[in-house]
Structure formats: structure tokens, C-alpha cells
């Protein structure tokens, strides 16, 4: 059937269509919000520069270590 014209990863939804079902749904959502708003959402929410990625990793590691520390201290108190 051929690949989607947008993502070029998935099979097209139908033989006479241009997009896969996922991209077709994205198109429907884009029609609701408008293409500029959708681009703004993707750029501000999904795309991260290197500094933002490092901050995210640091924050996740902090959360992870606090959970580990908390669970260890709970283990000590429970025994
Ligand atoms: Zn697609």
C-alpha cells in the first residue's frame, strides 16, 4: 500500500489515502487547534535543548535517589 506521506514510517491507512492512522489522527487534532498552535505545542513541550535535557535528567535522578533513600530508611525503621 505504501508508506505514510507524513511520517514515512507506517503503512498508509487505505490505498487511496496519503497518511497512516496515527498521522491521520494528528491531522484531525491539528484541524481543531490550528497548525501554528500545534507547532508551538510541539516546540515548547516536546523539543528540548541540551541544557533542558540535562536539567530533566538531574531532576529525575534527584527524585530517584530520594525515593531510594526514603525506601531504605523505611526498611531500617521497619526492622
Ligand atoms: Zn504517518
Write the layout of secondary structure elements.
Elements: H1 21-33, H2 35-46, H3 50-78
Bound molecules: zinc ion.
Radius of gyration: 22 Å
Bound chemical compounds: zinc ion
Number of strands: 0
Residues in helices, as a percent range = 55-70%
Structural class: mainly alpha
Helix run count: 3
Largest pleated sheet: none
- Count of discrete domains: 2
- Shape annotation: elongated
Compute the separation of the termini in Å: 63 Å
**What is the strand content?**
under 5%
Regions with little confidence, pLDDT below 50 for 5+ residues: none
H-E order:
HHH
Overall average residue pLDDT: 89
Structural features, described:
The protein is mainly alpha-helical and 79 residues long. The chain folds into two domains: 1-47, no CATH class; 49-79. It has helices at 21-33, 35-46, 50-78. Helix 1 packs across helix 2. The longest helix has 29 residues, at 50-78. The model has no long low-confidence stretch (mean pLDDT 89). Bound molecules: zinc ion. Zinc ion binds at residues 4, 6-7, 10, 19-20, 22-23.
Protein traits:
binds zinc ion, elongated, mainly alpha
Explain briefly what this protein structure is:
With 79 residues, this protein is an all-alpha fold.
Amino acid at each position: 500500500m505504501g508508506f505514510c506521506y507524513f511520517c514515512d514510517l507506517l503503512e498508509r491507512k487505505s490505498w487511496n489515502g496519503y497518511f497512516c492512522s496515527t498521522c491521520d489522527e494528528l491531522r484531525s487534532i491539528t484541524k481543531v487547534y490550528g497548525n501554528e498552535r500545534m507547532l508551538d505545542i510541539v516546540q515548547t513541550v516536546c523539543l528540548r535543548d541540551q541544557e533542558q535535557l540535562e536539567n530533566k535528567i538531574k531532576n529525575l535522578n534527584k527524585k530517584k535517589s530520594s525515593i531510594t533513600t526514603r525506601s531504605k530508611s523505611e526498611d531500617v525503621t521497619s526492622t
